[in-house]
Amino acid sequence: DIVMTQTPLSLSVTPGQPASMSCKSSQSLLHSDGKTYLYWYLQKPGQPPQLLIYEVSNRFSGVPDRFSGSGSGTDFTLKISRVEAEDVGIYYCMHSIEVPWTFGQGTKVEIK
Amino acid sequence: QVQLVQSGAEVKKPGASVKVSCKASGSTLTGSEFNWVRQAAGQGLEWMGWMNPDTGNTGYAQKFQGRVTMTRDTSIATAYMELSSLRSEDTAVYYCAWHSTTIWGQGTMVTVSS
CA nearest A51 in B: which residue? Predict the structure, then answer.
């Protein structure tokens, strides 16, 4: 199974300041079809996960443009340009390049 | 707007089976695979498998092979996930997700306790 490793495990951010988190996979997520199957989700307390970013850098419909994803191969980053109070929760990366899909352990974001 | 509505909480004894439903409101059950993901209390997300609602084809994580069955009833736009031989470690919230995980159900709490 592909292991997804997220760092840091927690972040405390002042509103209006940027935040960045990393996700590393144990093998490349670049498929032979040219796509890279790496996704980012935010799970707010008591809610199901919500998709933020698909295929590394594509924001899902309705996701604010302060969220951006980047990376390639095995190294990926999610950035929030200016953190807002509503961004608190746990951020997970996930791959879907092969079965089983696996998630990172999550990065918990809280507001200072 | 398509929504996924899951069945209510369940309490089961060890060794029993549970069947969780996931009804698509506002849509027929076609075009995109269903995925099932679970989350134990205070823990991360664990992918269990997928089901193609058009063909009924499935793919399961090896961890659940032999214990999980994913099915659907297209006439009522509902997908199902059945987990058998339950043990305490299966206590978790179970989610269905559709359309490349853009749409999620609200989750179903399954408690396994003697």
Answer: B102
Give the count of beta carbons closer than 10 Å to the beta carbon of residue A18. Answer: 12
Per-residue pLDDT in tens (0 to 9) along chain B, 114 residues: 899 999 999 999 999 999 999 999 888 888 889 999 999 999 999 999 999 999 999 999 999 999 999 999 999 999 999 999 999 999 999 999 998 888 999 999 999 999
Q: Do the chains contact at B44 and A106, CB–CB below 8 Å?
A: yes
- Amino acid A23 reads C
Residues from chain B that touch A104, judged by Cβ atoms under 8 A, are 44
∠ CA B82-B85-B90, nearest 5°, is 75
Between A and B, how many residue pairs show a Cβ–Cβ distance under 8 A? 48
**Helix and strand totals (H; E) in chain A:** 0, 11
